[in-house]
Amino acid sequence: MSRHTTLPGPHLTALYLLHAGSMDVRLISLSVERHWKHAVRLVPTLDEARVVLVDCDRPGVEAAFEQLGPYPSAGIVCYAFHPKDHALRFPNRLILGKPLNLDALPGILAKAANDTAAIKATVTARRQVPAPVPTPPMAAVETPSSLGHGLHMDEERDLCGAMDDIPLTPGTPLSEKLFFAPDQYLIGHLSRAVEQAVASGRPHVISGLPHLIGVQPQPLPVCVTAFRGNQLRPFSMTQLPHATARIVSALIFSESVGTETVYAAEDFLWNIAAWAARGRLPVGTDPYQRVRLKAWPNFTQAFLSPHALRIAALWTRTWASPVEIATQLAIPHRYVFSVFSSAHFSGLLDRNAPTVAPIAVIPVAAHPSPSPKQEQRPSILSRILRKLLNAV
Amino acid sequence: MRSERARHNKIIFSGTVGAGKSTAIAALSDIPPVCTEAVASDETAALKKTTTVAMDYGLLNLPDGEKVMLYGTPGQERFSFMWEILSEGGIGLVLLINNANVDPLKDLENYLAAFKKFIASTAVTIGVTHMDRAQEPGLDAYRKKLAELGHDPLPAVFRADARNREDVATLVKALLYTLNPGLVDA
Ligand SMILES: Nc1nc2c(ncn2[C@@H]2O[C@H](COP(=O)(O)OP(=O)(O)OP(=O)(O)O)[C@@H](O)[C@H]2O)c(=O)[nH]1
Ligand SMILES: [Mg+2]
């Protein structure tokens, strides 16, 4: 069977989703519909594809690759949670990390499609299997990690972005990239649903997504959903088309009994916000305004971004702006912005700083030690900490 | 003196009966934890004299050879006379409150009162256990109670399952950062 590509337009990359789960198919379709209409076209058959996207984490991926035999000029882009593990199984394949970076994906797909076409043009097709794409894996780039929590470099970029610090004092216009619009993400819908449920005392449901998300305001606010943990993260990071989600008042919200997970609303909001924020601030935030954390989030369930424990320890006791917190702890601003965004949506942020007696900003490491006994502490505390960090 | 110093490297676990102190220490300890109450009943009378203390004892071995003791105070209040003695010189307190008890917020108040002096000179983090069996009161009720009791800033309060090592480690990490947010893991 020979392959006859039908190219609908000069710039559209014809994409076939091979071996992708239904959830991913929906997410990627939504993204194409909303953002990439002019760059990518999803095609229903391999015949029409110029590039295929393959989920390596799902069982049977080898068989899926075999389907590609007759289509040597289709570009192949894989994705997986742990690209490095699969790099051994599928050497020379381009394997992206999950969750997919949706901003970069259209470019990567187009490049893979073109590269394969170029190879095809110079090396006459004599193989049964598709030619490897000679692009280095995405995971191998980016800056060195600066984390104290053993997070992997890919994860750092995914979860807190890679944004540079902003100026230490106000005055310079801030980049738009520093901010995100909550309404474009799940967090915007969720935070409204929780608000409405709590205000009315009635359960509310967010529908229109691959699974329902129920919000029960009483006796303690909880969110209930059949979304699995590993689906929630990529879903929270994705921009949703505006009309996708609807919030409705409901009597009950049971979708399919037994498969749902119940989360404390505060923890759920914290996490969904962190994943949307990726080291950014909600649009409209003044990063130089002093605020405080009302309380520590529930860090056994709430997402622990890099340095989050230190940030919480300091921010529950000090009125300080995000930039001041980062300066005191000598950490990149984006980690503090991440905590700020989560605290904002989970209701843990106190913005009513007292107007009198501003708190002097002392670098925390320079706190005086009141007694000789305590002088020993930093070293032993640090060593206990290292032990716990390495062991957990 | 080294032995003198080592005596001060201890983290105290306290809390209500059945909250999970022994379990938490076992989860974190590098040695099989010792429960002196059990030991006392099996040992000779002479030994008993020194082990009337009903407490749990675990150990963290640091890479440089130094040891950190994990002390669990007896949960039963009849042993409360020794809580202060046990905690003397300790680094800080991990307080576990069993949420399935009749009045866990009252328990919280009692334990904070009993450790008032110790907490004032060190720090405390609070693990609310058995929340899988008893959802209420929620963490917010604990925070409100702590604020009423005059704790400002509020100590860390986490939902914790003492059987989960990571939960217990998170409580201890929060304790260390409460003592010094500038701490780096060096
Ligand atoms: N379901 C549930 N069980 C827990 C939790 N935490 C601890 N347990 C269990 O609770 C029981 C009591 O735990 P212990 O560690 O003996 O409690 P303790 O605080 O040492 O009790 P005393 O020494 O009697 O004061 C054990 O069976 C634990 O496994 C939790 O969060 N949920
Ligand atoms: Mg015990």
UniProtKB/TrEMBL annotation, chain A:
Lineage: superkingdom: Bacteria
Protein name: Uncharacterized protein
TrEMBL record, chain B:
MF-aspect GO terms: GTP binding; hydrolase activity
Classification via SUPFAM superfamilies: P-loop containing nucleoside triphosphate hydrolases
Listed Gene3D superfamilies: P-loop containing nucleotide triphosphate hydrolases (3.40.50.300)
A Pfam entry, by short name: ATP_bind_1
Keywords: GTP-binding, Hydrolase, Nucleotide-binding
InterPro entries assigned to the protein according to its UniProt record, in alphabetical order: Gliding_Motility_GTPase (IPR052705), Gpn (IPR004130), P-loop_NTPase (IPR027417)
Recorded family membership: Belongs to the GPN-loop GTPase family.
The protein's name: GTP-binding protein
